[in-house]
Design brief:
By secondary structure, this protein is an all-beta fold. 2% of the residues lie in helices and 40% in strands. The strands form three sheets. The protein has a nine-stranded antiparallel β-sheet, with no helix packed on it. Bound molecules: 6-O-phosphono-beta-D-glucopyranose.
Length: 314
Protein backbone atom coordinates (compact mmCIF):
# COMPACT_ATOMS: atom_id res chain seq x y z
CA UNK A 1 0.00 0.00 0.00
CA UNK A 2 1.35 3.43 -0.86
CA UNK A 3 1.46 5.23 2.42
CA UNK A 4 2.06 8.87 1.58
CA UNK A 5 -1.62 9.80 1.24
CA UNK A 6 -2.47 8.19 4.55
CA UNK A 7 0.20 10.04 6.49
CA UNK A 8 -1.07 13.06 8.37
CA UNK A 9 1.21 16.02 7.82
CA UNK A 10 1.28 17.70 11.24
CA UNK A 11 3.34 20.63 10.03
CA UNK A 12 0.85 21.36 7.25
CA UNK A 13 -1.88 21.24 9.89
CA UNK A 14 -0.47 24.42 11.39
CA UNK A 15 -1.61 27.66 9.81
CA UNK A 16 -0.69 31.25 10.62
CA UNK A 17 -3.32 33.96 10.15
CA UNK A 18 -4.02 37.39 11.61
CA UNK A 19 -6.20 38.17 14.59
CA UNK A 20 -8.94 40.82 14.38
CA UNK A 21 -6.30 43.22 15.69
CA UNK A 22 -3.60 42.35 13.14
CA UNK A 23 -1.54 40.15 15.46
CA UNK A 24 -0.47 36.73 14.21
CA UNK A 25 -2.33 33.73 15.50
CA UNK A 26 -1.57 30.09 14.88
CA UNK A 27 -4.31 27.59 14.14
CA UNK A 28 -3.57 23.97 14.99
CA UNK A 29 -5.73 21.20 13.52
CA UNK A 30 -5.87 17.46 13.96
CA UNK A 31 -7.01 14.86 11.41
CA UNK A 32 -10.43 14.43 13.05
CA UNK A 33 -11.28 18.11 12.85
CA UNK A 34 -10.37 19.34 16.34
CA UNK A 35 -8.56 22.69 16.45
CA UNK A 36 -6.82 25.17 18.72
CA UNK A 37 -5.83 28.80 18.26
CA UNK A 38 -2.84 30.45 19.85
CA UNK A 39 -2.19 34.19 19.68
CA UNK A 40 1.25 35.76 19.66
CA UNK A 41 -0.40 38.29 21.95
CA UNK A 42 0.41 36.80 25.35
CA UNK A 43 1.17 33.37 23.90
CA UNK A 44 -2.46 32.86 24.83
CA UNK A 45 -4.55 29.91 23.69
CA UNK A 46 -7.80 31.60 22.68
CA UNK A 47 -9.79 28.64 21.39
CA UNK A 48 -9.86 24.87 21.65
CA UNK A 49 -12.53 22.95 19.77
CA UNK A 50 -13.39 19.27 19.70
CA UNK A 51 -14.02 17.32 16.50
CA UNK A 52 -17.68 18.40 16.51
CA UNK A 53 -16.50 22.01 16.43
CA UNK A 54 -17.72 22.71 20.00
CA UNK A 55 -15.70 25.30 21.89
CA UNK A 56 -14.18 23.90 25.09
CA UNK A 57 -12.63 27.07 26.49
CA UNK A 58 -14.60 30.09 27.65
CA UNK A 59 -13.95 33.49 26.09
CA UNK A 60 -16.05 36.51 26.86
CA UNK A 61 -18.27 38.03 24.20
CA UNK A 62 -17.52 41.45 25.62
CA UNK A 63 -14.37 42.38 23.75
CA UNK A 64 -13.41 45.69 25.26
CA UNK A 65 -9.80 44.76 25.81
CA UNK A 66 -7.32 45.81 23.19
CA UNK A 67 -3.78 44.45 23.17
CA UNK A 68 -1.62 44.46 25.16
CA UNK A 69 -4.40 43.50 27.60
CA UNK A 70 -5.21 39.78 27.51
CA UNK A 71 -8.52 38.57 26.12
CA UNK A 72 -10.86 37.50 28.97
CA UNK A 73 -10.79 33.73 28.55
CA UNK A 74 -8.80 30.99 26.87
CA UNK A 75 -5.54 30.26 28.68
CA UNK A 76 -3.56 33.38 29.63
CA UNK A 77 -0.07 32.67 30.97
CA UNK A 78 0.61 34.17 34.39
CA UNK A 79 4.35 34.82 34.77
CA UNK A 80 6.45 35.85 36.69
CA UNK A 81 3.76 36.25 39.30
CA UNK A 82 0.24 35.13 40.06
CA UNK A 83 -2.08 37.87 41.29
CA UNK A 84 -0.54 40.99 42.70
CA UNK A 85 2.57 41.64 44.69
CA UNK A 86 5.27 44.29 44.43
CA UNK A 87 5.54 46.57 41.46
CA UNK A 88 4.64 44.07 38.74
CA UNK A 89 1.25 44.08 37.05
CA UNK A 90 -1.40 41.60 38.22
CA UNK A 91 -0.59 38.07 36.97
CA UNK A 92 2.74 39.31 35.55
CA UNK A 93 3.68 40.65 32.14
CA UNK A 94 3.83 37.49 29.99
CA UNK A 95 0.14 37.64 29.06
CA UNK A 96 0.52 41.23 27.90
CA UNK A 97 3.60 40.80 25.71
CA UNK A 98 3.87 39.97 22.04
CA UNK A 99 5.64 36.62 21.73
CA UNK A 100 7.56 35.37 18.69
CA UNK A 101 7.52 32.01 16.93
CA UNK A 102 10.54 30.08 18.15
CA UNK A 103 12.45 29.16 15.02
CA UNK A 104 14.99 27.08 16.85
CA UNK A 105 13.33 25.21 19.69
CA UNK A 106 15.54 22.78 21.61
CA UNK A 107 14.37 19.16 21.18
CA UNK A 108 11.70 17.86 23.51
CA UNK A 109 11.14 14.23 24.40
CA UNK A 110 9.53 12.32 21.46
CA UNK A 111 6.29 11.94 23.44
CA UNK A 112 5.92 15.69 23.54
CA UNK A 113 5.84 16.13 19.77
CA UNK A 114 4.93 12.83 18.17
CA UNK A 115 1.64 12.67 16.33
CA UNK A 116 0.71 16.22 17.22
CA UNK A 117 0.28 19.52 15.51
CA UNK A 118 2.13 22.08 17.54
CA UNK A 119 3.72 25.50 17.67
CA UNK A 120 6.73 26.75 19.63
CA UNK A 121 6.69 30.30 20.97
CA UNK A 122 9.35 32.36 22.66
CA UNK A 123 9.38 35.29 25.07
CA UNK A 124 12.59 37.11 25.99
CA UNK A 125 13.28 40.18 28.11
CA UNK A 126 12.56 43.50 26.41
CA UNK A 127 13.66 47.09 27.02
CA UNK A 128 10.54 47.95 28.97
CA UNK A 129 11.02 45.20 31.56
CA UNK A 130 13.04 47.32 34.00
CA UNK A 131 10.70 46.21 36.80
CA UNK A 132 11.88 42.61 36.32
CA UNK A 133 15.49 42.85 35.13
CA UNK A 134 16.27 39.15 34.74
CA UNK A 135 17.94 37.21 32.02
CA UNK A 136 15.32 34.63 31.05
CA UNK A 137 14.07 32.71 28.03
CA UNK A 138 10.52 31.44 28.16
CA UNK A 139 9.66 28.75 25.61
CA UNK A 140 6.07 27.63 25.23
CA UNK A 141 4.96 24.67 23.17
CA UNK A 142 1.22 24.35 22.50
CA UNK A 143 0.16 21.10 20.90
CA UNK A 144 -3.03 19.41 19.80
CA UNK A 145 -2.93 15.61 19.76
CA UNK A 146 -4.68 13.20 17.39
CA UNK A 147 -7.18 12.44 20.18
CA UNK A 148 -7.91 16.17 20.61
CA UNK A 149 -6.02 16.66 23.88
CA UNK A 150 -4.47 20.08 24.36
CA UNK A 151 -0.99 20.29 25.92
CA UNK A 152 1.01 23.33 26.99
CA UNK A 153 4.65 22.94 27.97
CA UNK A 154 6.47 25.94 29.43
CA UNK A 155 10.22 25.93 29.80
CA UNK A 156 11.77 28.87 31.57
CA UNK A 157 15.54 29.19 31.62
CA UNK A 158 17.89 31.45 33.51
CA UNK A 159 20.32 32.41 30.75
CA UNK A 160 23.35 32.96 32.94
CA UNK A 161 21.95 35.90 34.82
CA UNK A 162 21.60 36.31 38.59
CA UNK A 163 19.28 33.83 40.31
CA UNK A 164 15.61 34.77 40.04
CA UNK A 165 12.31 33.52 41.42
CA UNK A 166 8.85 33.46 39.92
CA UNK A 167 5.40 32.06 40.33
CA UNK A 168 3.33 30.78 37.46
CA UNK A 169 -0.15 29.71 36.37
CA UNK A 170 -1.95 28.48 33.28
CA UNK A 171 -5.08 30.55 33.83
CA UNK A 172 -7.43 28.03 32.21
CA UNK A 173 -10.99 29.25 31.53
CA UNK A 174 -13.07 26.12 31.00
CA UNK A 175 -16.40 26.54 29.24
CA UNK A 176 -19.24 25.10 31.34
CA UNK A 177 -23.00 24.86 30.84
CA UNK A 178 -23.92 26.42 34.17
CA UNK A 179 -21.53 26.95 37.08
CA UNK A 180 -24.21 25.75 39.52
CA UNK A 181 -24.21 22.34 37.81
CA UNK A 182 -20.44 21.81 37.90
CA UNK A 183 -18.17 20.11 40.39
CA UNK A 184 -14.45 19.59 40.77
CA UNK A 185 -13.05 16.29 41.96
CA UNK A 186 -9.49 15.78 43.16
CA UNK A 187 -9.16 18.74 45.54
CA UNK A 188 -11.15 17.31 48.49
CA UNK A 189 -9.41 17.45 51.88
CA UNK A 190 -6.62 19.72 50.62
CA UNK A 191 -5.45 22.91 52.27
CA UNK A 192 -6.14 26.11 50.37
CA UNK A 193 -5.40 29.81 50.65
CA UNK A 194 -8.60 31.83 50.39
CA UNK A 195 -8.09 35.06 48.55
CA UNK A 196 -11.49 36.26 49.75
CA UNK A 197 -10.20 36.03 53.36
CA UNK A 198 -6.77 37.71 53.08
CA UNK A 199 -5.17 34.46 51.91
CA UNK A 200 -6.08 32.70 55.14
CA UNK A 201 -5.39 28.96 55.10
CA UNK A 202 -8.33 26.54 55.34
CA UNK A 203 -8.80 22.83 54.82
CA UNK A 204 -11.35 21.71 52.23
CA UNK A 205 -14.17 19.67 53.77
CA UNK A 206 -16.69 17.36 52.24
CA UNK A 207 -16.85 15.82 48.85
CA UNK A 208 -16.39 17.42 45.50
CA UNK A 209 -16.22 21.20 45.21
CA UNK A 210 -19.40 22.88 44.00
CA UNK A 211 -20.24 26.55 43.41
CA UNK A 212 -22.88 28.84 44.85
CA UNK A 213 -20.92 32.10 45.31
CA UNK A 214 -17.60 33.73 44.40
CA UNK A 215 -14.58 31.42 44.77
CA UNK A 216 -10.96 32.60 44.63
CA UNK A 217 -8.62 29.99 46.11
CA UNK A 218 -5.25 28.36 45.71
CA UNK A 219 -5.31 24.65 46.59
CA UNK A 220 -1.88 23.58 47.80
CA UNK A 221 0.09 20.50 46.80
CA UNK A 222 -2.74 19.19 44.67
CA UNK A 223 -2.72 15.82 42.90
CA UNK A 224 -1.56 15.86 39.29
CA UNK A 225 -4.99 14.94 37.95
CA UNK A 226 -8.12 16.95 38.65
CA UNK A 227 -11.53 16.46 37.02
CA UNK A 228 -14.21 19.06 36.31
CA UNK A 229 -17.61 17.42 35.83
CA UNK A 230 -20.28 19.29 33.91
CA UNK A 231 -23.46 17.46 34.71
CA UNK A 232 -25.72 19.28 32.26
CA UNK A 233 -23.42 18.95 29.27
CA UNK A 234 -22.40 15.40 30.19
CA UNK A 235 -18.80 16.42 29.75
CA UNK A 236 -15.81 15.96 32.04
CA UNK A 237 -12.59 17.92 31.68
CA UNK A 238 -9.53 16.10 32.94
CA UNK A 239 -6.68 18.44 33.84
CA UNK A 240 -3.27 16.83 34.21
CA UNK A 241 -0.29 18.80 35.39
CA UNK A 242 3.42 18.28 35.99
CA UNK A 243 5.84 20.60 37.75
CA UNK A 244 2.86 22.61 38.98
CA UNK A 245 2.08 21.79 42.62
CA UNK A 246 -0.94 24.06 43.12
CA UNK A 247 -4.37 24.52 41.57
CA UNK A 248 -6.01 27.95 41.61
CA UNK A 249 -9.80 27.91 41.32
CA UNK A 250 -11.72 31.05 40.41
CA UNK A 251 -15.24 32.08 39.56
CA UNK A 252 -16.13 35.77 40.04
CA UNK A 253 -19.89 35.20 40.49
CA UNK A 254 -22.43 37.94 39.97
CA UNK A 255 -21.21 40.96 41.91
CA UNK A 256 -17.59 40.85 40.80
CA UNK A 257 -18.60 40.15 37.18
CA UNK A 258 -20.56 43.39 37.16
CA UNK A 259 -17.42 45.30 38.07
CA UNK A 260 -15.36 43.73 35.29
CA UNK A 261 -15.16 45.68 32.02
CA UNK A 262 -14.47 42.64 29.85
CA UNK A 263 -17.05 40.19 31.17
CA UNK A 264 -20.80 40.35 30.58
CA UNK A 265 -22.90 40.35 33.74
CA UNK A 266 -24.12 36.77 33.47
CA UNK A 267 -21.11 35.20 31.72
CA UNK A 268 -19.68 33.98 35.04
CA UNK A 269 -22.22 31.16 34.74
CA UNK A 270 -20.46 29.75 31.68
CA UNK A 271 -16.88 29.78 32.98
CA UNK A 272 -14.72 28.12 35.59
CA UNK A 273 -11.00 28.71 36.00
CA UNK A 274 -9.01 25.69 37.15
CA UNK A 275 -5.38 26.70 36.91
CA UNK A 276 -2.38 24.39 37.16
CA UNK A 277 0.09 26.63 39.00
CA UNK A 278 3.21 27.10 41.10
CA UNK A 279 2.19 29.79 43.58
CA UNK A 280 2.78 29.02 47.24
CA UNK A 281 6.46 28.18 46.78
CA UNK A 282 7.99 30.30 44.03
CA UNK A 283 10.41 28.59 41.66
CA UNK A 284 14.04 29.76 41.88
CA UNK A 285 16.43 29.33 38.98
CA UNK A 286 20.17 29.69 39.28
CA UNK A 287 22.25 30.66 36.24
CA UNK A 288 21.86 28.03 33.50
CA UNK A 289 18.95 26.25 35.22
CA UNK A 290 15.64 25.49 33.52
CA UNK A 291 12.15 24.79 34.86
CA UNK A 292 9.37 22.93 33.08
CA UNK A 293 5.63 23.17 33.80
CA UNK A 294 3.26 21.00 31.77
CA UNK A 295 -0.52 21.08 31.47
CA UNK A 296 -2.70 18.67 29.52
CA UNK A 297 -6.45 19.06 29.22
CA UNK A 298 -8.70 16.40 27.79
CA UNK A 299 -12.44 15.88 27.65
CA UNK A 300 -14.41 12.71 28.26
CA UNK A 301 -18.10 12.44 27.59
CA UNK A 302 -19.27 11.41 31.03
CA UNK A 303 -20.57 12.67 34.32
CA UNK A 304 -19.95 9.56 36.31
CA UNK A 305 -19.17 10.23 39.94
CA UNK A 306 -15.78 9.48 41.39
CA UNK A 307 -16.93 5.99 42.40
CA UNK A 308 -16.99 5.13 38.71
CA UNK A 309 -14.14 7.35 37.82
CA UNK A 310 -10.61 6.46 38.75
CA UNK A 311 -8.76 9.76 38.61
CA UNK A 312 -5.40 8.13 39.21
CA UNK A 313 -5.71 5.96 36.13
CA UNK A 314 -6.75 8.75 33.75
C1 LIG B 1 -7.84 34.92 39.47
C2 LIG B 1 -7.47 35.63 40.73
O1 LIG B 1 -7.03 33.85 39.24
O2 LIG B 1 -7.78 35.85 38.40
C3 LIG B 1 -8.54 36.68 40.97
O3 LIG B 1 -7.38 34.73 41.80
C4 LIG B 1 -8.60 37.62 39.77
O4 LIG B 1 -8.30 37.35 42.17
C5 LIG B 1 -8.77 36.82 38.52
O5 LIG B 1 -9.66 38.52 39.94
C6 LIG B 1 -8.80 37.64 37.23
O6 LIG B 1 -7.67 38.42 37.13
P1 LIG B 1 -7.52 39.42 35.93
O7 LIG B 1 -6.27 40.21 36.18
O8 LIG B 1 -7.42 38.61 34.68
O9 LIG B 1 -8.75 40.29 35.93
Amino acid sequence: MGHSAAVWDYRAATEITKDWNGIDKIVLRNPRGASARVSLSGGQVTSWRNEQGEELLFTSNKVSSKPPKAVRGGIPICFPQFRNCGSLEQHGFARNKIWTIDGNPPPLSPNDSQGKSFVDLLLKPSEDLKCWPHSFEFRLRVSLAADGNLTLISRIRNVNGKPFSFSFAYHTYLSVSDISEVRIEGLETLDYLDNLCQKERFTEQGDAITFESEVDRVYLSAPNVVAVLDHERKRTYVVRKEGLPDVAVWNPWEKKSKSMVDLRDSEYKQMLCVNGAAIEKPVTLKPGEEWTGRLEVSVVASTLSSEHFDLQRM
